[in-house]
Structures are given as C-alpha cells and as structure tokens.
C-alpha cells in the first residue's frame, strides 16, 4: 500500500505556493474519486446499512460458536448376512414383444481479481483433524452399527453459519490461496481399487494450492459423480472448513460391477457465489478413478414406497438406477423416445408402476424411499376435486405441461407462465382438478431476473393474496425459486434477506387463512435444478443454486411453513454435466425432433417426467 505523504498547509517558501495550491487541488480530487469508488463498490455488493449490520452480527455469531461443519452428515452401514438378489442384468418375469437388443438390465465488496499472489508464509490449517476424522482415508470406513443408506441433513442455524464462512477470510496466510489440485491418500496411487458393495466408504482428501501444499481454506465446490452401467449418483462431500474434505461412496449390492468416480473442482472458496462468477470458474476434472464394487455380506435395508413423512427430509441423497435398455431405440417424429413398452414394469423396490411410461430407456430415480409411477387413472383419483397452487420459475411451467401430457392424458401444446384453470378427466367428467401457476421470475410475467425480489412489487403481492381470499383456498402450494435469483441478487447476504422476506410474506398469507377459520394449504418446496453444461459456470451455477436452496429451506423452516420437500437439485445433479437432458436451465422442455443445445437431434426429457411423478407422490402419499 503506498505510504502516506505529509504536506504542510502553508509553504515556508513563497516560490512553492503555486505548486502547493495545485497539490491541494489534486488531493481533493483524489479524495473525491476514492469516495465515489467506495460507494460504487458498496453498490455492486448490494450492501446497505441493514445488511451490513446483519453481516457484522453473523460474523460475531460465527466467532461465538467456533468452527463449523456446514454441509453433510451421514449414516454409516455395517456388515450383515447377505441374501443373494438377482443381478439387474437378469431377465424379468415379463414377456416382451418388442424390437431386438432390449435388455433388462468468500467479502463480495472486495475487488474481484484473478491475479494470484504467493503467500509469504506457509499456511497451516486452522484446525487439525483428529484421528477419528480421518478414518477411511486409506481404507474404507466401516462402522459396526446398524446398516443404513447414506443420508444428508441441513445443520442448525444454517444461514448464519454459511454467511460466517463466506465472510471469514481464513487468516492472512490463507487469504490468497486458491486450490488447484487434491490429494486422496486412500485412492491415489492404487492400481486396482475394489470395494464391497453395500458398505459406506469414506475417504478424507485435501485441497492443494499451486505450491502443492495443503490448503487451509474451505468452501471449494466439488462436483462428484459415480457412474456404472446401471447406476448414477452424486457421492456426498463434507467440507471441514480448513481445506480438508471427505467423500462417501455407496453402491447397492444389486448393482455391483465396474464404476468410474469423477471429481471436478468447479469453484474455489465460494467464488461461485459471486455476482459474475464465470471468470472465476476453475472447472477442471481432477480425478477419474475406476472402481470395482463387488458383492459382499453387507445388505442395505430395502427401500419402501414413499410415505407422507418421507417428504419431511430436507436434503436427499438419491441415485438413478437402470432396469431395462433398448440399444436400438430411435427418436420418433414427435421427438419422443419410446424405447420400452409403456407397460414395462418397475423392479421392486426401486419403483412401483410402469417404468416404460417414463420414456427414460430404463432409468428411474429413488432416494431414501422409492416412488410410485402413476397411471392416468391413479393420478386422476389422487388429484380429483383438489386445487394445486404453484409459485416458481419456468421449470414449473414445463412440469405442469408434462403432467398434463404424459400422466393425465390431456394433450397440451403449451401452458403460459401465469394461468388459473380447471382440468377435467376426459374419461370421467366428475373428476376435475384446479391448477394455478404464477411465475415468480419477475412481477411482470413477460420479463425475467427478479426472483424473490418480485415480491417487492405491490401489485404482484396483491395478485398472490387474491387467490387466498376466496371462500376456498388451495389444498397445496408448491413453490421454488433460484435461477432468476442467481442473476438478481448481488451476493449471498442480499439473498438471505430476500428469502427471509419471502418466508414472512407467505407466513402472513397462511396466518390470514387461519384467522378466517379455514385450513391453510400445505407448503411443499421443490429445490432448484442443478444447471447443466454451459450453465455450470454462469450466474445460476450449481454452487450458487445449492447454497440458495439451503437458505430458502432454512428460512421457510424457521417460519414454520414447510410441509414437505422435493429435492430436484439432487434429482437433476447426475445429469447436469452436459446438455443431453437439459438446455442449461430446464430439464423438461417439450420433446422435438430438432437440433438441441449440444448439436444432436432431440433431447432427453425424462428427468422432468420423473419429477412430475415425484410431485404426485408428495401430493398423494399418506
């Protein structure tokens, strides 16, 4: 930083008076420029007095509560006696008359600069992992307690803790460090990696900066993928906040075989949360590791069909499994992939219903429970005489259209961003459902990029309230937000205020319903998608969307609004690495036999069809 220069107010040398006056003029101009620059930076950061005080309070709260483990908790499995189950590649007891080859098988107001400076002193981690934390760094972590699937939970005080970590610089030695590599002692350097299926395998790894030394900052965003011939999942990553992380792997014994584990470093130290994150994206695949999972004695609990209570879980850790395949499947003239017969059955316990109707060529999603795939009759029986209110972005619009076309058998070319309509079962006129959908990307339905800030518009607020002032009110509210918020909100601090205000708005509506003696609707939050392909480095990148999802869930939960959660982020993540199943921000665009974003003809739309069935599960489960 330049040294300060002292200039006397009046020169003792008359011949220098003119130069002193000039110097004073320059000093005043410089002072004004600095002041204007600071004001501009504060404006860019979206910081006002209220949010600054709130950020200062969060920092004090962080210092009071100490170290934070933000992201995940998991349950570990155990070895039990294993009862052999048929391999997914075995034949189904189902007769097919179908074509051949069908097999069953960081403060934001600081200048955003890309220049890196070598730290003067060697950084040391803020906290040192205790031995218990590094179990499994060289071998899989096996716990001799009750077996269980890996699970994920939101921690208490999530928003304040997340803000504290985002604001914390990590100390002078750590401030300028940016990770460029990782070291995984339990996986690196091994020629052949074989792990027993069914068990949880936890590996601790360290982020390394460009000197090859361990980083002492957390907040790196790793994209993980575990894929086999009939399995795709996102391995859970824990952030210890000091440059060390853990990775947990688990595959069900039914799907033992050869897998690839990939780890991509997308952003370093919360840089994905910046207003303009594209130039900060690292986006480098650091590992692609072949792993063989073999059958062992461990047996995971069998999944059960989802009940109403299962939707109380706020964060999911699911997987996509494949139970059929047609390698000769071709796109039809209407852009659809009818690869399996419509009545091709699900395999228990991974789903219940006709898998062929997903048009996924055998793929289906399950989480801590499995999902029912609805027929038109069962869907109408569930929805009859109900009022469903949706408040969200254009992905909601796609999903409603797909429910009408693919499930309710109501051919619909398109649906508008804002509508309120009654739909009737063509086979049974006594069965009707009212669906209201209000776009929240902007208070003006023809515009974008306001998100939760759309509630600042009085007319938009009055519009929403009007639907809840009728003699009857909706049975269920399904809401989401995120993509438009990623562009509007300048930083995480600003978004937390927006999410808090949105929760307060909806809490006020529900309370007004109670005061009228009516039963308020249930509120289901559908998390924002994991943006795909090119969109992974944009203002609505997965790192930012996941953090925004956590904040909204935390605020809705604090306000006592949540009746259930559908984790569409987890559902879409395994398919977000390219644009085959999405156009970057939508997973349910209408099928069409035309050139897609990735240059191929047609696109896969089944991920959103799966979401449509999951929504019906949440609405209809008991």
List keywords for this structure.
single chain, 622 residues, alpha/beta, 7-stranded mixed β-sheet, 6-stranded mixed β-sheet, 12 helices, 18% strand, globular, disordered N terminus
Mean pLDDT: 82
Number of helices: 12
Radius of gyration: 27 Å
First and last CA, distance:
65 Å
Quaternary structure classification: single chain
Outline: globular
Helix content: 25-40%
Uncertain stretches of 5 or more adjacent residues:
1-23, 39-144
Walkthrough of the structure:
The chain has 622 residues and is an alpha/beta fold. The protein has 12 helices and 21 strands. The protein has helices spanning 17-44, 49-65, 158-167, 172-175, 376-383, 394-407, 458-466, 483-488, 492-515, 542-558, 568-572, 606-620, and strands at 102-103, 179-183, 194-196, 201-209, 221-228, 231-233, 236-239, 244-249, 257-267, 284-294, 319-322, 325-326, 351-352, 363-366, 371-372, 386-392, 418-425, 428-439, 476-479, 522-526, 564-566. The strands form 5 sheets. The chain has a 7-stranded mixed sheet with strand order 3-10-9-5-6-11-14, with no helix packed on it. Strands 17-18-16-19-20-21 form a 6-stranded mixed sheet. Strand 20, helix 10 and strand 21 (564-566) form a beta-alpha-beta unit. Helix 2 crosses helix 3 (158-167) and helix 9 (492-515) packs parallel to helix 10. It is globular, with a radius of gyration of 27 Å. The chain starts with 16 loop residues before the first helix and ends with a helix. 46% of the residues are buried. Mean pLDDT is 82; it is low at 1-23 and 39-144.
């Amino acid at each position: 930083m330049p040294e300060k220069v002292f200039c006397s107010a009046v020169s003792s040398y008359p011949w220098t008076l003119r130069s002193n006056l000039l110097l004073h003029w320059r000093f005043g101009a410089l002072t004004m420029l600095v002041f204007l620059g600071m004001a501009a930076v504060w404006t860019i950061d979206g910081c006002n007095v209220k949010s600054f005080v709130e950020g200062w309070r969060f920092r004090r709260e962080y210092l009071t509560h100490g170290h934070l483990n933000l992201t995940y908790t998991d349950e570990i499995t155990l070895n039990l006696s294993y009862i052999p189950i048929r391999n997914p590649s075995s034949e189904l007891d189902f007769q097919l008359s179908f074509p051949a080859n069908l097999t069953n098988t960081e403060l934001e107001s600081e200048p955003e600069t890309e220049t890196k400076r070598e730290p003067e002193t060697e950084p040391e981690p803020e906290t040192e992992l205790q031995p218990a934390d590094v179990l499994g760094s060289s071998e899989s972590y096996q716990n001799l307690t009750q077996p269980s699937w890996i699970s994920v939970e939101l921690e208490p005080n999530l928003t304040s803790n997340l803000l504290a970590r985002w604001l914390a610089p990590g100390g002078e030695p750590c401030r300028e460090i940016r990770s460029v590599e990782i070291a995984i002692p339990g996986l690196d350097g091994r020629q052949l990696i074989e792990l027993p299926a069914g068990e949880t395998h936890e590996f601790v790894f360290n982020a390394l900066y460009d000197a090859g030394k361990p980083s002492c900052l957390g907040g790196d965003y790793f994209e993980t993928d575990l894929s086999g011939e009939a399995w795709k999942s996102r391995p859970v990553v824990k952030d210890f906040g000091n440059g060390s992380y853990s990775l947990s792997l688990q595959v069900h014994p039914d799907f033992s075989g050869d897998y690839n584990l990939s780890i991509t470093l997308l952003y370093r130290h919360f840089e994905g949360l910046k207003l303009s994150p594209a130039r900060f994206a690292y986006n480098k695949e650091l590992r692609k590791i072949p792993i063989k999972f073999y059958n062992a004695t461990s047996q995971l609990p069998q999944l059960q069909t989802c009940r109403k209570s299962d939707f109380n879980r706020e964060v999911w850790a699911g997987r996509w499994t494949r139970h059929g395949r047609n390698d000769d499947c071709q796109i039809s003239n209407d852009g659809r992939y009818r690869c399996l017969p419509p009545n091709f059955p699900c395999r228990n316990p991974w789903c219940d219903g006709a898998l062929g109707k997903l048009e996924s060529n055998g793929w289906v999603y399950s989480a801590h429970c499995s999902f029912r795939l609805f027929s038109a009759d069962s869907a109408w029986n569930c929805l009859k005489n109900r009022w469903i209110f949706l408040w969200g972005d254009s992905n909601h619009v796609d999903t409603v259209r797909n429910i009408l076309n693919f499930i309710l058998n109501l051919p619909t070319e398109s649906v508008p961003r804002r509508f309120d309509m009654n739909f009737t079962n063509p086979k049974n006129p006594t069965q009707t459902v009212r669906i209201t959908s209000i776009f929240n990307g902007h208070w003006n339905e023809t515009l974008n990029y306001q998100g939760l800030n759309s509630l600042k518009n009085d007319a938009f607020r009055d519009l929403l309230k009007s639907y809840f002032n009728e003699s009857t009110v909706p049975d269920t509210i399904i809401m989401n937000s995120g993509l438009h918020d990623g562009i509007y909100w300048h930083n995480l601090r600003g978004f937390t205020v927006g999410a808090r205000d949105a929760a307060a708005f909806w809490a006020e509506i529900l309370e007004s319903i109670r005061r009228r003696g009516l039963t308020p609707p249930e509120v289901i939050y559908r998390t924002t998608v994991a943006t795909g392909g090119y969109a992974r480095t944009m203002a609505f990148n997965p790192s930012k969307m996941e953090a925004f999802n956590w904040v909204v869930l935390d605020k809705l939960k604090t306000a006592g609004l949540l009746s259930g959660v559908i984790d569409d982020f987890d559902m879409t993540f395994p398919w977000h690495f390219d644009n085959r199943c999405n156009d970057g921000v939508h997973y349910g665009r209408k099928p069409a036999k035309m050139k897609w974003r990735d240059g191929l003809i047609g696109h896969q739309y089944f991920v959103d069809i799966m979401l449509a069935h999951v929504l019906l599960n949440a609405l209809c489960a008991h």
